[in-house]
Design brief:
This protein is of the alpha/beta class. The chain contains 6 helices and 10 strands; from the N terminus they run βαββαβββαββαββαα. It has helices at about 25-45, 65-75, 100-110, 125-140, 160-165, 175-189; strands spanning about 15, 50-55, 55-60, 80-85, 90-95, 95, 115-120, 125, 145-150, 155-160. The protein has a two-stranded parallel sheet with strand order 1-10. Strands 2-7 form a two-stranded parallel ribbon. The protein is globular. The two termini are about 30 Å apart.
């Protein structure tokens, strides 16, 4: 999971697979420990294993990230949408469509080697911009505002160059396409 890097506090950092792990909490630490266990078994037992560090996945059938669904529901109700502003700026999130995540997993399963790969869209978006996109796509009159938080956020982007080169994988679904699917679903329901 990308969570192994969630401890970086920055205005923007591109992270490749060789970057020092820096989990920001218990969840990220558990992911780091899992990576260490996998590395141990690869080395000691000569097992073949691949680690995929996947950024947040979204799409139909998933209820996360919650912000997408909350923004869409508020947009259809023409209610105000509040996002956050941290001490180091607007928080960004990198989103990967579920179909692209499934394709990455399939390509990794066919790969005959071992390794660690970042699986990401490569296109971080601020939560404010995400809310504004949803408002526009929904044809809403919702206003997008933000609340100041006295915190610092990570704002990282996973570099997926290695996955493209070695696995032959790249995301194909744009954020706009994925959001349109969600907007249509919310509109019907």
């Amino acid at each position: 999971s990308w969570e192994v890097f969630s401890g970086y506090k920055t205005t923007g950092l591109l992270i490749n697979e060789t970057m020092r792990l820096n989990p920001g909490g218990t969840y990220g630490q558990s992911k780091m420990l899992c990576e260490n266990l996998v590395a141990h078994y690869v080395e000691d037992l000569n097992l073949q294993a691949i680690i995929l560090r996947i950024c947040p996945v979204y799409g139909l059938g998933a209820d996360k990230p919650k912000s997408i669904w909350n923004f869409a529901e508020k947009a259809f109700a023409n209610k105000e949408i509040k996002t956050h502003l941290y001490n180091n700026g607007l928080p960004t999130i990198e989103l990967l469509h579920i179909e692209d995540a499934a394709d990455a997993i399939a390509k990794a399963a066919d790969f005959p080697g071992v390794g660690i790969f970042n699986i990401s869209s490569g296109n971080p978006v601020s939560t404010k911009s995400l809310a504004e996109m949803i408002v526009e796509l929904a044809g809403s009159t919702s206003k997008v505002t933000h609340t100041q938080l006295d915190l610092v956020t990570h704002n990282i982007t996973l570099d997926n160059t290695k996955a493209a080169k070695i696995l032959g994988w790249a995301p194909t679904k744009s954020l706009k396409e994925g959001l349109i699917e969600i907007i249509k679903f919310v509109c019907k329901n």
